[in-house]
Design goal:
174 residues; Transcription Regulator spoIIAA; six-stranded mixed β-sheet; 24% strand
Amino acid sequence: MSGGEGLLCLRQLGERISCRVVGQATMRQSPALRCRIEQALVSGPITLHVDLHECVYMDSTFLGMLIMFRRMLVNRHLGQFALVAPSPECSRLLRQMGLDATFCILAEESSPDVPEELLESETDAPYSQRNIVEAHQELAALPGPAGEIFRDVAAHLQHDWERRQNEPTAAGSG
């Protein structure tokens, strides 16, 4: 790992997906995992477990994406979602945000017996920007103080993203 960037290690066996986070979980890894989950959902419901026992940090985009997965899978009846063995750092963040009771949390994971695949960080800027906006909208939708903290941030990110969508590309300017 360089520059504090974390790793996402994925195992998939049929509809069961296990993602192990090593180090920091940030907006750089979020789009690749989201894309993989959206692709898997095309085939039908899935079970997604995100193993956080080696995760030392989650930024707001990654946390918002976890909320998005929970809503997408559980609330919309598209599958099952659980966090696995959150590290002390992750547990503290979930408690501070009032999310510790929101997520199904498993003490340990029995990963599918298939090799792990390292997910690469997303490089598609428009998809990454959209992911950041939507992850923060998930955080802003939280009830109480946790959501209030992110409402202005989500609104600002949405406005900035829309502005960028309407800008002419720099390729035509010489």
